[in-house]
Design brief:
The protein is mostly helical. The protein folds into two domains: 66 residues, Winged helix-like DNA-binding domain superfamily/Winged helix DNA-binding domain (Arc Repressor Mutant, subunit A, Orthogonal Bundle), CATH 1.10.10.10; 42 residues. It has six helices and no strands. Helix 3 crosses helix 4. It starts with a helix and ends with a helix. The model has no long low-confidence stretch (mean pLDDT 89).
């Protein structure tokens, strides 16, 4: 996974656990694709200060994922549900419960994906 995309996902999962300042700087860098100089100018701090804060924030996000594993778990769940859906779709249409099963599986998949 590309680093910016991965950091964006980690921010979605764990951003609320960072300080408000770290989260704001990471969002500018990752989501808005701002350079260190742009962030430094916006925030009134040095580029080195921005770089240090971003590095600490990134380290915290990776450490949280290492300890909690929420992003990895959700990816595994999505893969498992996707496989179940493929299997269910391959079942003969004559099976009475297939439609109900597929509907519930779709509902579960959507819940996990959010």
């Amino acid at each position: 996974m590309e680093k910016h995309v991965e950091l964006g996902c980690l921010l979605d999962y764990y951003g609320a656990l960072l300080t408000e300042r770290q989260r704001a700087l990471l969002e500018q860098h990752v989501s808005e694709d701002c350079s260190l100089a742009e962030i430094a100018e916006r925030e009134g701090i040095s580029r080195q200060g921005v770089r240090d804060a971003l590095k600490r924030g990134e380290e915290q996000l990776y450490e949280l994922e290492h300890k909690l594993g929420l992003m990895k778990r959700d990816a595994a769940l999505l893969q498992a549900v996707g496989e179940l859906k493929r299997i269910a779709d391959a079942l003969p249409d004559s099976m009475r419960e297939k439609e109900t099963f597929c509907a519930k599986l779709d509902e579960f998949y959507d819940m996990i994906e959010e």
